[in-house]
Design a protein that fits this description.
Chain lengths: 180, 541
């Protein structure tokens, strides 16, 4: 063989340096996206007891759905349960920061909203929270995307994104699909 | 036939039978999800089928192939008899009994939990015990591989362990580390729940323990492919291995970096903090380094082969390679699919960007492309390479082997490219049926049918593979099998102790695992989150 051992080692080291350089660039891009554009995963270590969440506190039936606080913050609370969402239809305003909060009384579920980056697992024992801004109006699908039992394929909800002018909270600050 | 050869054949056949059954199930599942009407469909048949498909592909095909290949390597690369063959057979029968137990439980409709079995969904205990037996069988294999290398080193003091065996033991050591996570989950959480001893489960803890196993298991499946790349492909191409040292380094890097990275499967989970998610994403980025090193070293080895065969110019050596040899062809196709799959994986692991694709068909596409395109296609090629020495007969037709590999490549692309696209459109995973009356979903229909065609091509290829192996029975007898292992350009005379064993690297793995998983696991005992009630899937309503 014509190639000397040293030449081989040198070429391998050069390539290793290139590889590590490429990997470092990718990491820098991720750090940049995380810090500057706030592109972070939905971490939220906020325990909640799945066995009692329907009895008291923020996820009782009366509290579910979209609500606008006195300061104008829009929050939707949604329970994912075998094999439906409560409520099954959610109204949200376009072009405004909204917060989605999920909890489950039974098994693992997960959601995504088609055509957006909204995505989270819903794990019994924790509240999952996603902040987002919907830029397009219309009806979006929000299916359960984690296997949760035999009825899993039929488990989905609808997000109705409306222009700010049509987003009209009632006296308690609630907005629901049937009210319209 | 020697013990190791009989062992290898027995293991390969169990793996390949499981593979063929899983292929049929996979095609039926794609048919069900398409707009075309499919037979036998109920929620229970569909999710039992998905469970069987995942279990057979991920646990049975892989574990048996890794074990069978390891026994072959231990005997041929070390050129000495296998230690304690009786124990090897014990491992085989344990794993086979476990496989049958799991499969019977699934097909009786009592284990529709998918192969990831996320609690608090709980199946019949026999499904989990079956899996534990498969793992127990593989642990015997791990110990035998480590002992075989130790005995060889004792008899050959100071000499470098042959690369194929060094890599096999790297995989055995990694597998022992890998299975700790899932074993803790099964023994302390899932099996007690399945036996009715526990009514509640800490789901965050079980998901974190499973994630410990979930990434490294992929490298357990993949390492036989890399062993073939380094130690067999240069020989099949008519060349030399460019660098033996780089090979050792690559397998050491796999051992170190495939373990402390599993949290990238939990990026969308609420119960892990962004700090640890980010730390493990950074370590995940590093796991691409050994693959990049491999692409270079194998590329250079093939270039040597091409030039020895008269190839000239910058790219002329590529055309001069013996593409008619199945192992060389499989390597070329695997590298192409690895390039596609690697790009997809980059998006998955990208911390924030993961939200775009998590639990969509993009992910399904990614792991089928990596698994089918790099793992399984090389299992085919390994089988084709070893079969002459295992059966004592020559292949009756290399053309049939090449056709099979091409069909696999084409089928993989036809199936997974539409899946990637559908994933970006938001098509979600793990459902039996879609409501094609919905206008958004109706637009997906044609692409789902294209991917089904890809699945059918894969099924044809898989069955042709089994036929090609059976055809060896009519091949002419060949009692002097060709040398399968490549020599390096500069065969190592001595290597540093660090690249001839794993003691140092085990310490490093321990440190990294404490760093990466110490707090993410300990936090559940500190915050003591409320448990979730067990939900059984094996009770008839
Ligand atoms: Cu579900
Ligand atoms: Cu992974």
């Amino acid at each position: 063989m014509a190639i000397g051992e040293e030449a081989i080692v040198r070429s391998e080291l050069r390539w290793a340096a290139v590889s590590i350089g490429v990997v470092s660039l990718i990491m820098l891009a991720l750090i940049y996206a995380g810090i500057v554009h706030h592109i972070n995963p939905p971490s939220n270590i906020e325990p909640i007891d799945p066995k009692t969440l329907h009895l008291s506190g923020e996820f009782t039936e009366a509290n579910l759905g979209t609500r606008v606080s006195a300061e104008g913050q829009v929050t939707s609370r949604i329970v994912a349960t075998q094999f439906t969402f409560q409520p099954r239809c959610i109204v949200l305003p376009a072009n405004q920061r909204v917060t989605l909060r999920f909890a489950t009384p039974d098994v693992i579920h997960g959601i995504l909203v088609t055509g957006t980056n909204v995505n989270t697992m819903i794990v019994p024992g924790y509240v999952s929270q996603v902040h987002t801004v919907f830029t397009r109006t219309g009806e979006l699908l929000m299916p359960c995307h984690e296997y949760c039992g035999l009825g899993h394929s039929e488990m989905f909800a609808t997000l109705r994104v409306v222009p700010a002018s049509e987003f009209k909270p009632d006296a308690q600050g609630r907005v629901s699909c049937d009210a319209r | 036939m020697t013990h190791a050869r009989r062992l290898a054949l027995a293991h390969f056949w169990i793996g390949f039978i499981a593979f063929a059954i899983a292929l049929v199930l996979g095609v039926w599942q794609m048919w069900v999800r398409s707009p075309l009407p499919a037979p036998f469909l109920t929620a229970s048949t569909y999710f039992s089928s998905v469970t069987a498909h995942g279990t057979a592909m991920a646990y049975v095909l892989t574990t048996f192939t890794v074990m069978g290949f390891g026994y072959y390597v231990a005997e041929t690369a070390l050129a000495r008899a296998l230690p304690a063959p009786r124990w090897a057979w014990t491992g085989f029968w344990l794993a086979l009994a476990g496989t049958l137990m799991a499969v019977v439980t699934i097909f009786s409709g009592r284990a529709a939990v998918l192969f990831t079995f996320y609690p608090p969904l709980i199946a019949s205990v026999f499904y989990y015990i079956g899996l534990v037996l498969v793992v127990a069988g593989s642990w015997i294999w791990c110990v035998l591989m480590i002992v075989a290398m130790g005995q060889w080193k004792g008899a050959n003091p100071g000499r470098p362990v042959p690369l194929a065996m060094f890599a096999t033991v790297a995989n055995a050591v990694m597998w022992l580390w890998t299975t700790v996570g899932v074993t803790l989950e099964l023994l302390f959480q899932v099996i007690p729940a399945a036996l009715g001893l526990k009514a509640q489960i800490d789901v965050g803890l079980s998901r974190t323990l499973f994630s410990w196993t979930l990434h490294a298991v992929v490298y357990f499946w993949l390492i036989p492919s890399y062993i073939a790349f380094y130690t067999m492909v240069p020989q099949a191409a008519g060349g030399r291995l460019y660098s033996d040292t780089m090979g050792r380094l690559t397998f050491v890097l796999f051992l170190i970096y495939s373990l402390p990275v599993g949290l990238h499967h939990l990026l969308m989970d609420p119960h892990q903090s962004n700090a640890f998610k980010f730390l493990q994403v950074a370590l995940t980025a590093l796991v691409s380094v050994p693959t990049l090193l491999t692409v270079f070293t194998i590329g250079a080895s093939l270039e040597i082969a091409g030039r020895l065969r008269g190839g000239r110019g910058l790219f002329g050596w590529i055309g001069a390679l013996p593409w008619e040899r199945p192992l060389v062809l499989a390597t070329g196709l695997a590298f192409l699919m690895l390039a596609f799959g690697g790009f997809g994986g980059l998006v998955n692991m990208s911390y924030g960007m993961n939200a775009m694709v998590h639990n969509t068909s993009w992910v399904t596409a990614h792991f089928h492309l990596i698994f089918g395109g790099t793992v399984v296609i090389m299992y085919f090629a390994i089988a084709y390479t070893l079969w002459p020495s295992l059966t004592g007969r020559a292949a009756p037709s290399l053309a049939a082997q090449r056709l099979q590999l091409w069909l696999w490549f084409i089928g993989m692309l036809v199936m997974t490219l539409p899946w990637h696209y559908l994933g970006l459109l938001g098509q979600w995973r793990r459902v039996a049926t879609f409501n094609y009356a919905d206008p958004i979903i109706a637009a997906w229909g044609p692409w789902v049918i294209v991917s089904l065609v890809g699945g059918l091509i894969l099924l044809v290829s898989g069955l042709l593979f089994v036929r090609n192996l059976l055809q060896f029975a009519i091949g002419r007898a060949s009692h002097v099998p060709a040398e399968v292992y490549a020599t390096a350009v500069h065969p190592p005379l001595r290597v540093p102790a660090a690249l001839n064993g794993f003691r140092l690297w085990n310490v490093l793995v321990l440190v990294l695992m404490l760093l990466a998983y110490g707090y993410p696991l300990a936090q559940f005992f500190i915050i003591d989150p409320p448990g979730a009630l067990v939900h059984r899937v094996d009770q008839r309503r």
